[in-house]
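Researcher: We're reviewing a set of sequences before deciding which ones to prioritize for further study. For each one, I'd like a predicted 3D structure that I can look through quickly. This is Xylulose kinase. If possible, include the structure in token form so it fits the rest of the review sheet.
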Amino acid sequence: MSDRTLVAGVDSSTQSTKIVVCDAETGEVVRTTRAPHPDGTEVHPDRWWEAYTAASQQDGVLDGVEAIAVGGQQHGMVALDEDDEVVRDALLWNDTRSADAAADLTAELGGVGAWVDAVGLVPVASFTVTKLRWLAEHEPENAARVARVVLPHDWLTGRILQQGNGFERWTTDRGDASGTGYWSAATDGYRTDLLERAFGRVVELPEVLAPTAAAGRTADGVLVAAGTGDNMGAALGLTLEPGDVVVSLGTSGTVFTPHDKAIRDESGAIAGFADATGNHLPLMCTLNAARVLSATASMMGVDLATLDRLALEGPVGAGGLSLLPYLDGERTPDLPHATGTLSGLTRSNATPENLARAAVEGMLCNLVAGVDALRDNGVRVERVLLIGGAAASRAVREIAPGLFRAPVVVPTPAEYVGVGAARQAAWALSGASDAPSWSLTLDSEYAVPEQDCSDVVARYGALLHTVHGR
Ligand SMILES: Nc1ncnc2c1ncn2[C@@H]1O[C@H](COP(=O)(O)OP(=O)(O)O)[C@@H](O)[C@H]1O
Ligand SMILES: O=C(CO)[C@@H](O)[C@H](O)COP(=O)(O)O
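Model: Here's the predicted structure for Xylulose kinase, in token form for your review sheet.
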């Protein structure tokens, strides 16, 4: 019988639930399971519970686990009634119907600067506060039934505790709270005035737990830690060094790095989130990332491996072909109703190789803007750590360094949101002042090429201006 302590981390993200079990001392991943979520931008939380249940019943994954924490997709609006029943499907981070509400809230408070001063971010459709305004305006009967609002990771944490008698109250953490639009990482407090402005009244909000606090214990005595947002979890799962910036290519594309102070960005490119350790996590997020590649592959009738090969056979710059990848609208830049644009097509560059390369370059160039926004805000960018499902793409790995103008390292493939949640669980279980020291192993590294790719990035910037006036 192994004498090592096992801890579990859950990644309840947009497309699936992943459960990762780690050695609490070393961080070695010993088990991983997963189960899919339905597609869409609104989902009943019961689907997350069903996926969690399915993943937790695979291969005895949770056998012997002493602590668990949940990392979840950020911002989702889980509206509960007096009996903690879900009032309506949760609007997710990638739902854009509250875009008008976001614009109204921004104007009402006095513009972007007022919101950045208040809660470190500029309202866009992703953020919970805008979804509450939408609910109040478009579904007043549902709005009237709302007693409390929690986030996806809060809800799953509570549901796990409710399996026994360990549930005492709804909880959240600084990281996920900072993505609501009514909690400030600068003051570590809720701004219920902004909640009331959005929703018309104040509703109950989850208690914000400290980074190593426990939310409770299961009937079997397993410690359930605070949990956090998925990007905060990933940051905790990666042992980052000064100068490291993470680019995560899942359903969303995100650029983030732990920082010792809040970044104030009125452009809205960088949101001033909190991390899962008591620090800050400035973050840029795009709505379009991995699924730009799968959509392009599907359109071309090829699999992802073939898309990779074609993209790498294409020249830098795809022969002048550009794909502005706003296939689901876009969050950054704030273009919720945008669609994709294929530009520069000619008879001579109309090749599968150029189209595949344009999909990779277009998706990455949107994230280059996030890396450059961090640079513009004083963040040192010395290397990019690539994670998320599309980090498995050889084309992405090889094309990224030239566009980011930074070397790219790919950590040993793992579900780093789940690893980070497991590290939080181990930290809460230990009661130590610092998180356990888990080493990060690298799978591969990609240097900045000699060929200058700045003209590709500039071309995308010019196209964004031409097509969308940004
Ligand atoms: N080799 C690959 N090349 C490109 N995309 C990939 C590859 N493997 C997985 N993906 C994509 O990664 C995505 C899932 O990544 P993940 O980080 O789990 O997403 P999320 O956390 O948002 O649910 C899917 O859209 C899938 O198509
Ligand atoms: O909205 C954000 C970050 O602000 C997204 O990163 C969501 O948290 C969804 O994450 P993934 O499902 O893409 O991991």
